[in-house]
Amino acid sequence: MNTFSKADKNTLLFVIIITMLAPFILNPFPEGSAMAQFNAGYPDLMQRFAIFGILAVGFNILFGLTGYLSFGHAAFLGVGSYSAVWMFKLLSMNIIPALILSVIIAGVFALVIGFISLRRSGIYFSILTLAFAQMSFSLAYSVLTPITNGETGLQITLNDPRILDGGTGAGNLPVTGLFGMEMRNTFTLDVGAWAFQFNVGYYVCAIFLILAFYLSMRIFRSPFGLMLRAIKTNQTRLNYTGLNSRPYTLAAFVISGMYAGLAGGLMASMDPLAGAERMQWTASGEIVLMTILGGAGTLLGPVLGAGFIKYFENIFSKINDNVLHTWFSFMPDGLENAIVWVLHFFVGKGWHLTLGMLFMLVVIFLPGGLMEGADRIRARFGRNKGDGDDTPNATTPAE
Q1: Which domain holds residue 246?
Q2: Under a CB-based contact definition with an 8 Å cutoff, are residues 258 and 58 in contact?
Q3: 90, 163 in Cβ contact below 8 A?
Q4: How many domains does the chain have?
Q5: How far is CA 313 from the centre of its chain?
C-alpha cells in the first residue's frame, strides 16, 4: 500500500515541474502586449497559488478522502497566521520557528474542535465546524483584541522584542527571511519581450507545497488512508465490525487542520500581517469550492482548483472597462460599446459571476471536477490505453 504506482510517480513529477517552472509557464505573453493582462507569473500571485494549494490538499484529506465536510477550516488558517506573526514579534524574523509554531497551534486547535465536532456526522458535523469558525472569528475580532489586535489586524512593529534578532529599535521594519534570504527578494530575467520573475518567497512556498503533496500521497496510499476511504464508503457498516472509526476521523481532522495552519503561517511569512477576516465563513467556503472544483478525492484536483480560483480572483478581477475598450477599439464605436457593456458584468467586480457560471458547468458536466475533464481529454487522445490501476481515473477517489 505504501508503494507508489507509475501514475503516482508521474503525478508527483508533474507537480514538481509545474511548481519549479511556474515563472515561465505563468508568463506566456510578452510584456506590453494586450494579452499580458492574463499573465500570472508575478510573486504575490504565485505565492497564493502555492499556499492555497497546500490548504486545499490538506482539506481534501478530510473531505475528499474521509467524507467529512467542514465549513470551518478557515479558523485553522487564521490561527496559523496569528501564531506566525507572534513568533515574528517575539522571537525572530526567520520563518522556520514561525511555521513550526503555526502547525503545532493549529494542530492543537483542530484536536479540540475535532474532538467535539466529530461526535456528530453529516450536516450536523458541518454546522458544528461552521459554528466554531464563527466563534473564532468573533473572538479574534473583538474579545481577544489584546492578542489579535481586533479589526486592525496583528502586525510587526519596531518596538517588538525579537529576542533572537535583538529587536529593531529604529529604522525600517525588518523583513521575513530564511537564514539570510529575504522572502521579498526577486530576480528578474529579461528574455526579449518577456520578463520572468524568480522570487525567494515563492520558491519557499513551492517547496512546502511539494512536501505537503508528497505527504498527502503517502497518506492516500497507506493503510491509514484505506481506512479513511472505508469510513467514507460506509462508516456504519465499519462500526458494525467492532472497529472504532473515531480515532481515524479525528486524526484526519487534525492532519487537515495542521495543513491549514502551515498555509496560514506561510501567508504571514510572505506578508507579516494576520487579520480576523481570514477566519470568516466565506474563506471556509472558498476552500470547499477549490476542492470540489478541482476534484474531491483526487490528489491533484485540489491544487488545480486552488490555482483556478486564485487566477480568476486576481486576473479577471483586474479587467476593467478601459482594458475592454483597448481590446475592442478596432470595432465601430457602437458595437465596441455594446460588447464592453455586456462583458462589464463578467469581469472586474463581476468576476464572481463568471466563476459561478464556470462552477455550475463543471458540476453539471464534470461532476468529478477538473480532474475528470483531464481524464476525458487523456482518454480522447488514447493516452491511457491498457494502463490498468496505474492510470489515474476521476471516477476512483484514489488518485
Answers
A1: 6-279
A2: yes
A3: yes
A4: 1
A5: 13
